[in-house]
């Protein structure tokens, strides 16, 4: 939690009612601990939000790209040199650019007062409503409005994730298992609890996403029809004997399926909002322009990151591998739409991906617990696997083996994707200085979305010049390899000391 001057710190301490005068992270920990021990109900409420919003990634993000692509295909593209196949990437590039600005402007509000929870509720309402409105995009003439609403929804979703993720450190520090420990054992326990909560959150999220995928799969299977202009090169097996889709059928059922995600997100979030406590911070700095607070906090957070070598190296590595992962998955989704004969086939492939991701989190979490493998070591292993898979993709394996080559390249990616994200979030949470959670997780999201400007620029460039997405894998291979090299030099122990969560004699 970043502060704007000594007056803000003193005011926060007075409001918190702390008797002992302390400075820095110790003061902030005292302020927050007065709000009570985190009980199981509140932890479950935090997990429930992952269950509510994960279908955004596993269903809406997929269907949203397909809908934008098809709207463009039926709308007399190319326009201004943009092909229909690259229109989703262009929209997402604009979305990522706005997300960086919105994160800088609004994310730090979660560090002050009750805004962490209040803004989480507001962003959830805006995002879920925006997704539901996609049900009206079944006309090719709506391609521009669909792109605009996709950008608005993207801002609400990314900010909601900042406020949600900012709870992780706060809940871990005040967790019912952590408060039982003495000062010396608390650092080890915080890291352990943070790892466990992050992994379990992803497991709960995957389960929600898979359930939603199954519902959408059943819906699309019931109205299944054959795409009239389908390239079958990457699809194994015989051509299904179904009637050809009309333009309306190719648009409406995808739009309807996407809109259901909005109802899911808004509906299941109610449990979270009912049981998750505000866990407030200090008041907003006096005399500050409200909309400048985020930028000031961001500048302060950037100075902190640059002053702490482990955190800086981690952020640089994450910048590269987060973009490479997003680029890999986006290229895969667009490739599937070019090669699938029906919408249900695309969703079925997505279901397989989610199941593999779910199993990956379960298996890797258990392996890490049994063999006491650190997050850093596991992340290094996963990045090496991703580098090899991207090398195979760039070498053309995706076009071989009668279509099975595509799945051969993507299988290790989706198997390790969930655990890569869980370990990343947990390791970053451990390195975040006490009291700066929302500001730092804003940078976490800014790094993720800022890096996406690279991938979303490369995809249309490759597709416009080659008509395929295969060449994208050469970029992802380089990004994974360089990020692994940077992560190798991250000193996690020193990072915990810098964050105020360990001492020189602690061994994490």
Helix content: over 70%
State the domain count. Answer: 1
CATH class: Mainly Alpha
pLDDT under 50 segments (min length 5)?
1-34, 229-238
- Output the CATH topology: Growth Hormone, Chain: A
How many β-strands, per DSSP?
Answer: 0
Shape: globular
**Helix-strand pattern, N to C?**
HHHHHHHHHHHHHHHH
Structural account:
The protein has one domain: Growth Hormone, Chain: A (Up-down Bundle). It is globular and about 65 Å long. The N terminus is likely disordered. Helix 7 runs antiparallel to helix 8. It starts with 5 loop residues before the first helix and ends in a 10-residue tail after the last helix. The chain is mainly alpha-helical and 508 residues long.
